[in-house]
Amino acid sequence: MNDGTVTLPWLVVRQDDNGNRYRVGRYATRAEAERIADSLDERGHKQLYWVERIGRNATSAD
Questions:
Q1: Could you give the 3-state DSSP secondary structure of residue 13?
Q2: Is the predicted pLDDT of residue 40 greater than 80, yes or no?
């Protein structure tokens, strides 16, 4: 992909105590997404936050 667009393959997802899931944001790196998920998780609410990779090679650890 060389069309000048930014690739943001990492998602932070939130699940509330009713099981509803929401996309919180998309990020360029796994480290950035995990930092956001951790900071949200530290707030102590009942929501669960995690990081997912979307697109090609979704199982890659990059």
A1: strand
A2: yes
Domain spans of the chain?
10-53
pLDDT for the residue numbered 57 = 59
Q: Dig out the tokens for 50 from the structure.
A: 């995690």
> 17 CB contacts (<8 Å, ≥6 apart)?
46, 47
pLDDT over threshold 50, residue 35: yes
Q: Which of 43, 46, 25, 22 is nearest to 34 (CA)?
A: 25
Spatial strand order of the sheet with 10-15 comes to 21-27, 10-15, 48-53
